[in-house]
């Protein structure tokens, strides 16, 4: 897949995941939020919880999961900490880190609380 096609497929996957979270009652707080530490694909609010969602797309869910490495997890955590600084309870806020895997058919598998 060319870079441009891959980029647009990734955006489409992020939009599909955002719709899924919205349908399940989450309020979308931000999409592709960028801080000094990195980017977070999707940030939602569910009740009093902030949910940080990393979206990974590949031919299969297993291949998508393999695309999330330790360095990227570190960048997600850094960006999340920065975002949490904007919340009323700051770093004491109730948060969760989900990973949404999207396969070639568009099927989405959400791994709640995947990054501890």
Automatic annotation (TrEMBL):
SUPFAM superfamilies: Restriction endonuclease-like. One of its GO terms (molecular function) is nucleic acid binding. It comes from the Bacteria. Belongs to the UPF0102 family. PANTHER family: UPF0102 PROTEIN YRAN. This is UPF0102 protein jaqu_36940. It comes from Jannaschia aquimarina.
């Amino acid at each position: 897949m060319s870079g441009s096609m891959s980029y647009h497929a990734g955006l489409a996957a992020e939009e599909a995941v955002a719709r899924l979270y919205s349908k399940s009652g989450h309020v979308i707080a931000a999409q592709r939020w960028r801080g000094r530490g990195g980017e977070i694909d999707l940030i939602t609010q569910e009740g009093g919880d902030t949910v940080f969602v990393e979206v990974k797309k590949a031919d299969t869910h297993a291949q998508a999961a393999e695309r999330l490495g330790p360095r990227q997890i570190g960048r997600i955590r850094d960006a999340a900490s920065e975002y949490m600084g904007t919340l009323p309870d700051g770093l004491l806020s109730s948060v969760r880190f989900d990973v949404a895997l999207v396969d070639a058919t568009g099927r989405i598998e959400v791994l709640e609380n995947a990054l501890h």
